[in-house]
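Practice problem 4.
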């Protein structure tokens, strides 16, 4: 903490600034130096000593003083970047200017009239420190000078990187430094790991915090589906104007992926040493996720040196995205994947000594980074799926999904986890990998089972659907789509997982659930499709599922005979009013949860959460592909795909049903959660909005894909009943043995082609990711609370 004297002096300067009605000249160094000359303030001091109300007061009442303060602070950073901060005093000035700008920038961004200030050139100022040069290109905008100075300072010997000086007399000139030799950590494209230096880590963290604050202008613009609006700060920083773009990108990625929070396996190690590296890793991963933004929402094909020229026409090229998409060496992929898996698994490692290992908190940022890696670099995605290493990402994701299912403040985490699994499930290899036996004993609040990773996935999804909170209902489509996508490859489901799938079918096929919303019958279609895939393509190893289907055969008969007359529909809806719960919790035989697990709990009262924009419906999120004989995928045209759920008679329903939760025409409208809630309530109150009719029920009932299962029941039920009568059997194992050796070859309908619904990027998902990611960044930066209580527009901050 700073000494009392220096804090008093700093506070005095702030008060002078707010009370001076006359503009203070930029040349009055004695006045301006008070803000950064003192060596002992911390960033927390600066936040405490510069209250929000005073920043706003200066902004409104003496704008020229605020402008001069910003200009002078940037000038000091530029001077530090040019001199390389040889003295301690200069280093301290740079850090103090960083802290002041971090404090002030959000208040510049929240006021529309000020937003352009950093992009204007300051009259009469020339380029700081280069007045004597002839200004051919004129002065740079303040924002550009600031960003270039930060980039230079991040590779400043003896400040943020180790000096390579050969002797006491040699000088490292900042202008001629080759920053590629000063990359912060070994990993992608760099072999040497520099010795740890916690002072360098602290200084990098302060500079990155300021850089993140510069990029945060995005938080002050309302959500918009216009993806061509780029963040000017990110665009400039990730352009060829920044000569450190490559080494900085590499440094950030390597620092994150090489980090090992456990501290070389020594228990309690993290309590002895404040971990400066962790703060750096957190800032680094946040910088990575906010800079890796699509240009115009569509990923460019990666530029190869030969194709760089013709790319000029396609607008500015984000070099971070470019470099990320061009990583291709197996050992680089391995380093990145192992690093992310290690960090994602860290919060799951239970030890017998309480608090003995450090638990990281930045798993949401890591998931966004993993998502962007897969999205921008298809080679990385295929590498992930090539071995069972993908399961080291799957297990932590399932753990987070299960743990967050009751907590409304973590609904964003639920979404990102499900999106990643949806993306992976579009690739055949993912389904194949799920057959690996699951032997880890991560304590999770789920029934104990013996089986594969596929069983784990199904058991967790069942738990989310039956015991998660109401806000998760929009994700049900995605969860079941993932199950359908992997189903053709699942060699043998456990009895526990088979029963869970049938329990879902039972819950989703009650008449009140089917008739209570226009979309609900899709869930039944998805489950039937999954059953059909397993029966047609993996019958041999799946006697548990076949047995479960036989035991619950009445569910299929009831579906086939679903009533559609007006009085049955009314009766079903009356029943709904009596039991408004989404899915009956009772008929699921809840078993004992795993030992050492904690139940999923709702958010603590008072928890802050950031709102999210609505997600596009499953048909917008995915496009259908058909798997042909040789295993290749062929895209299915959108119009009228075979055995897909067909769009229903919209004349009857007043809205175009299936295939979209958002309606075709207003694709670009984004609602805040509050607005969605209001719409939901108003639609619930006015029955005129949508009501089930006999025609509507018939329109989809006739398309229920029940033939395969009905044929299976027709063949096997009499045989099973006969065995039971003959042998007086009530013992499951005998029946399972019979089913295991049974065959349906030649008895089932011709196998249908396998349909995979692959994730596809679009404006809606791009906007969702932007709001989610910035919401995470906002909520995770609490010390100091950079954006707290400023007027952000991209999302709303809500208290639970």
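Answer key:
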């Amino acid at each position: 903490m700073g000494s009392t004297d220096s804090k008093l002096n700093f506070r005095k300067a702030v008060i002078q600034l707010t009370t001076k009605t006359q503009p203070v000249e930029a040349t009055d160094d004695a006045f301006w130096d008070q803000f950064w000359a003192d060596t002992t303030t911390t960033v927390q001091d600066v936040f405490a000593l510069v209250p929000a109300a005073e920043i706003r007061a200066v902004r409104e009442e003496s704008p020229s003083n605020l402008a001069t303060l910003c200009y002078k602070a940037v000038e000091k950073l530029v001077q530090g970047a040019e001199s390389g901060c040889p003295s301690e005093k200069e280093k301290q000035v740079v850090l103090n200017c960083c802290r002041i700008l971090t404090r002030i920038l959000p208040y510049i961004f929240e006021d529309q009239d000020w937003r352009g200030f950093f992009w204007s050139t300051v009259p009469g100022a020339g380029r700081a420190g280069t007045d004597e040069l002839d200004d051919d290109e004129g002065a740079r905008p303040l924002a550009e000078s600031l960003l270039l100075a930060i980039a230079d300072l991040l590779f400043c010997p003896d400040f943020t990187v180790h000096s390579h000086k050969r002797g006491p007399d040699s000088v490292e000139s900042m202008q001629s430094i080759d920053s590629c030799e000063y990359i912060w950590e070994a990993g992608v494209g760099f072999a040497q790991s520099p010795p740890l230096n916690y002072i360098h880590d602290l200084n990098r963290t302060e500079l990155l915090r300021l850089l993140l604050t510069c990029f945060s202008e995005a938080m002050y613009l309302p959500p918009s589906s216009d993806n061509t609006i780029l963040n000017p700060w990110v665009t400039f920083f990730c352009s060829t104007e920044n000569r450190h773009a490559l080494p900085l990108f590499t440094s950030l990625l390597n620092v994150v992926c090489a980090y090992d929070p456990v501290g070389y396996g020594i228990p309690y190690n993290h309590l002895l040493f404040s971990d400066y590296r962790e703060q750096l890793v957190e800032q680094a991963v946040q910088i990575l996720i906010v800079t890796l933004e699509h240009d115009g929402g569509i990923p460019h094909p990666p530029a190869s040196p030969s194709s760089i020229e013709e790319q000029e026409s396609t607008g500015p090229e984000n070099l971070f995205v470019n470099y990320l998409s061009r990583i291709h060496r197996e050992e680089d992929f391995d380093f990145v994947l192992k690093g992310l898996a290690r960090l994602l698994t860290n919060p799951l490692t239970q030890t017998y000594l309480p608090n003995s290992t450090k638990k990281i908190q930045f798993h949401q940022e890591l998931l966004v980074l993993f998502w962007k890696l897969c999205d921008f670099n298809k080679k990385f995605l295929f590498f992930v799926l090539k071995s069972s290493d993908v399961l080291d990402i799957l297990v932590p994701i399932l753990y987070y999904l299960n743990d967050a299912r009751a907590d409304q403040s973590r609904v964003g985490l639920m979404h990102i986890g499900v999106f990643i699994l949806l993306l992976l499930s579009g690739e055949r290899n993912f389904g194949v990998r799920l057959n690996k036996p699951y032997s880890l004993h991560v304590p999770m609040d789920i029934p104990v089972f013996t089986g594969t990773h596929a069983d784990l996935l199904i058991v967790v999804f069942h738990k989310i659907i039956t015991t998660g909170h109401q806000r998760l209902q929009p994700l049900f489509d995605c969860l079941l789509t993932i199950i359908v996508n992997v189903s053709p490859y699942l060699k043998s489901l456990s009895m526990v997982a088979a029963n869970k799938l049938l329990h879902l079918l039972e819950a989703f096929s009650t008449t009140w659930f089917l008739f209570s919303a226009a979309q609900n019958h899709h869930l039944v279609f998805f489950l039937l499709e999954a059953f059909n895939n397993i029966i047609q393509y993996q019958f041999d190893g799946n006697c548990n599922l076949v047995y479960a289907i036989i035991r619950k055969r009445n569910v299929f008969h009831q579906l086939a005979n679903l009533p559609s007359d007006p009085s049955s529909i009314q009766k079903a809806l009356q029943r709904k009013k009596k039991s408004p719960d989404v899915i009956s919790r009772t008929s699921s035989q809840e078993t004992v949860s795993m030992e050492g697990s904690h139940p999923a709990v709702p958010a603590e009262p008072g928890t802050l959460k950031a709102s999210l924009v609505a997600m596009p419906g499953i048909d917008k999120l995915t496009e259908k592909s058909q798997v042909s004989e040789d295993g290749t995928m062929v895209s299915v045209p959108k119009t009228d795909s075979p055995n897909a759920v067909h769009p229903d008679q919209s004349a009857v329903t007043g809205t175009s049903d299936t295939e979209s939760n958002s309606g075709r025409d207003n694709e670009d409208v984004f609602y805040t959660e509050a607005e969605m809630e209001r719409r939901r309530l108003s639609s619930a109150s006015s029955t005129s909005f949508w009501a089930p009719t006999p025609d509507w029920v018939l329109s989809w009932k006739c398309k229920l894909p029940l033939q395969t299962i009905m044929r299976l029941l027709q063949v096997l039920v009499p045989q099973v009943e006969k065995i039971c009568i003959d042998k007086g059997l009530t013992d499951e194992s005998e029946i399972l043995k019979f089913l295991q050796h049974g065959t349906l070859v030649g008895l089932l309908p011709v196998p249908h082609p396998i349909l995979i619904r692959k994730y596809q990027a679009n404006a809606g998902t791009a906007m969702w990711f932007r709001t989610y990611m910035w919401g995470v960044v906002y909520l995770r930066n609490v010390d100091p609370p950079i954006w707290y209580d400023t007027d952000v527009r991209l999302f709303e901050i809500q208290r639970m």
